[in-house]
Amino acid sequence: MTQQIPALSSSDLNNPVDTTSSNNIPRHQKKEERMPIDEIPLEVRVKGPFACFTRPEMKVERVSYPVMTPSAARGILEAIFWKPQFRWLVTEIRVLAPVRYFSIVRNEVTQRASEKNASEWEKKGGGFDASTARTQRHTLALRDVDYVIRARQILTPDAGENPAKYRDQFRRRVRKGQCFSRPYLGCREFAADFSEPDGTESPIPDEMGIGSMLWDLHYNRDGSGRGEPVFFPAHLKNGVLCIPDLTGNT
Q1: Class assignment of domain 38-109+134-249?
Q2: pTM
Q3: Which of 4, 224, 234, 238 is the most exposed place for a label (fewest CB within 10 A)?
C-alpha cells in the first residue's frame, strides 16, 4: 500500500520547521542563547600552591581573606586578556578547594626605591642599601587554592566591535595558556596556573561570613593614580561568592 505524503503549503515553505530537538541542547547553552551576548559570562579556572589576598585593615602583618577578592580576580583576567575597548566585571567566584591557612615570616624592606632617588644615585653615585631598611614581617596566607572565576566583558560606548570577537579571543588565550603577564594570586611571588573549566568543577559545601571585602578602587580622574576603596559585605554560600555590581559606586 502506497502512503501519500501531504503537499506543503506556501506558508510551510516560507517558515521551515527546525527538526533539531531542544532536548539535545545542554541546559546552560539554552540559557546563554537567551541572554544578550554582552551579558554571557566567561569562566576561567585558576589555582596555585600559595595565595594571599591581604585584608586592608591589617596595617603591618599580612592576613589573607579566606577567598579571592574581586579586584584580584580582575587582575588575573586582565593578565590573560585585556583591551581598551572593554572592562572586566567579576560576578562570581567559586571555591573548589578547602580553605587552608599557613604562616610564614619573610624579610621585607620598609622603604621603596623611587625614580627620583635612582636619578640622584645615577648622578651622584650611591644606591639603595636594603640592609638598612630590612625587617621581618609575618604573613598568614592560603595554601593549595583552586577557584573558578566567572566574569563579563563590558564594552565601552566607542568599542564599535562585535562582542563575540573579544569573547572568542579570551577563550583561545585560555585554551592555549597565553597571557600578557604571569597571573598571580594576591602577591607576585604566588604565581597562578589557569585553564578552561571542564564542567565537572564542584564548589566546597561551606558557608562563611567574610565581612567587609574589598570590591575595587575608585581611581581619581586627576591622573594622580590614587583611588578610594569600595567595599561590600561578602558571604560565602555553598562555596560560591556572589559579587554585586558596584560600578555605579566607582
Answers
A1: alpha beta
A2: 0.77
A3: 4
